[in-house]
Design a protein that fits this description.
single chain, 489 residues, alpha+beta, Chondroitinase Ac, Chain A, domain 3, Rhopdopsin 7-helix transmembrane proteins, 3 domains, eight-stranded antiparallel β-sheet, three-stranded antiparallel β-sheet, 56% helix, elongated
């Protein structure tokens, strides 16, 4: 506060550190901007009343130095450019058309001093005293509205098909008891975690507001996606572990329950412990200024994606463990290939593991390429085709998994082929057996005309029932009942 005793004029300044959640970050006529500094409010008291400083033009501009928020610093350092804009808050008085007083950011009378500005602060020169701040262009996903819409449509269609495909995969692996094994248990849990993660993905790409205002529901969706995608990669890691156990360990099938229990604890528990460190870090680094970890990534003023912040490299808390898991799985695959070459004489087991290995490698390739393109989307946003590739990969993962785990899986194909053959064979046998018995009954009815007909029919019925129960699984059929069926044939 500065007071002038001669004229009775007092200048007071108030520093508002955290206003990003209350004031919009959008500049009139611009898109993709965020509030990137505290707000400095300056008022002028003329005698006994507060002067309207917006109408007072200073003979010399007032110099206001505004420190960048951590998010703004990261954006400027990452893109090596300072696109900060000096603005002031222009109040709009209430009127009949607008009964509630409102306001907006305006740049009139304020310019940025490029010589004195750097990555940590922006120096503004303004010809009036009001409420000063800086807005920063933040475009990690700088997509035209038409492109953003097409990507959203692809995402919705792909996720819908993926969820249906993964539910079909789960049903295919559960229906036949012959497919109840440790490896398919891993596949089922992988599908469950990916279904939940992709449903969170749909919530995450749904518009949650604009102007950089943080939505707690959006952050929650980002946290859940972070966890569920990590869980899915952990189950993919268990795929490599199973390959190793089958080739190296003895009596694996005898201890399947123990392994399944261990895999479940590790796959769901390890990400929980990891997230226990990441979640506080994501929110603690935000401070009171902006959203640093789990945040809204603006593609325009109305579409907001809930995910990890790529600008401040918080997304590395997801990328690093994923890369580690992929490398470990590659190591397991290399070991499996070496071991199979050493034991080529064990043809049966080698062929079985070879089929597993092809499926596992394909799975790692699909999931790995998805997130490699995901990194490129944020690191090189100008590569528009990469955005389409990433959206297609992440949305249609479930369809690819269904193809790998059901039609292209030799054990699943063989199991359903055997099941279908058994059903057809049983049906043909039953049809043939009934046809034979109908012919027999016709012969009996033709030849037996004596009073001993009833006893002959009873004897024929007993022989028929015992034979049907032993050979076809049919029981409690009398000759009279079969006779009625034969008449209908």
């Amino acid at each position: 506060m500065v007071a002038n005793g001669t004229t009775g004029t007092t200048v007071a300044s108030v520093y508002y550190r955290n206003m990003s959640g209350l004031l919009p970050g959008t500049l009139l006529g611009e898109r993709d901007t965020v509030l990137a500094s505290p707000v400095v409010s300056t008022s002028l008291q003329c005698g006994d009343k507060i002067c309207d400083t917006t109408n007072i033009q200073l003979s010399q501009p007032v110099i206001v130095t505004l420190k960048h928020s951590k998010y703004a610093q990261a954006v400027i350092e990452k893109h090596d450019t300072n696109e900060a804009t000096c603005v002031f808050w222009e109040f709009i008085t209430a009127s009949s058309e607008n009964p509630l007083a409102n306001g907006r950011w305006n740049t009139e009378g304020c310019v940025r001093n490029d010589k004195l500005s750097n990555s940590t602060q922006t120096v503004c020169e303004c010809t009036h005293l009001t409420n000063f701040a800086i807005l920063l262009s933040a475009r990690p996903l700088n997509l035209p509205s038409g492109v953003a819409l097409s990507l959203s449509i692809i995402g919705y269609i792909g996720v819908s098909l993926s969820v249906i495909a993964m539910l079909a995969t789960i049903m295919a692996l559960v229906i036949l008891r012959t497919l109840w094994n440790m490896r398919n248990y891993i596949h089922i849990n992988l599908c469950v975690s990916l279904i939940l993660a992709q449903l969170m993905f749909v919530i995450g790409v749904t518009p949650h507001g604009g102007g950089g205002v943080v939505d707690p529901g959006c952050r929650t969706a980002a946290v859940l996606m972070h966890y569920l995608f990590l869980v899915s990669f952990m189950w993919m890691l268990m795929e490599g572990v199973v390959l190793y156990l089958v080739l190296v360990k003895v009596f694996v099938k005898e201890h399947e329950r123990k392994y399944i229990f261990s895999f479940t604890i590790v796959s769901y528990g390890a990400p929980v412990l990891y997230m226990a460190l990441c979640i506080p870090l994501g929110f603690a680094l935000s401070g009171l200024e902006d959203s640093y970890g789990y945040q809204l990534v603006n593609s325009n003023t109305t579409t907001i994606v809930c995910w990890l912040n790529p600008i401040t490299n918080f997304i590395l808390t997801f990328i690093v463990p994923v890369v580690v898991i992929l490398l470990v799985n590659v190591g397991f695959f290399i070991m499996a290939i070496v071991i199979m070459r050493r034991h080529q004489k064990r043809q049966g087991k080698t062929q079985e593991v070879s089929s597993w290995l092809k499926t596992s490698v394909s799975l790692v390739t699909v999931m790995g390429l998805t997130w490699i393109t995901g990194v490129l989307v944020f690191e090189v946003p100008a590569l528009l085709p990469v955005s389409y590739i990433f959206t297609i990969f992440v949305s249609f993962q479930g369809v690819a998994i269904f193809i790998l785990f059901v039609p292209l899986s030799v054990p699943v194909r063989d199991a359903y082929s055997n099941w279908l053959k058994e059903k057809l064979a049983k049906h043909r046998y039953q049809f043939h057996f009934k046809s034979t018995k109908c012919a027999t009954l016709s012969s009996v009815n033709t030849n037996v005309t004596s009073p001993s007909l009833d006893s002959s029919l009873k004897l024929e019925s007993n022989i028929f029932n015992s034979t049907m129960e032993r050979e076809s699984g049919f029981a409690n059929h009398s000759v009279m009942e079969l006779s009625e069926e034969c008449k209908e044939r």
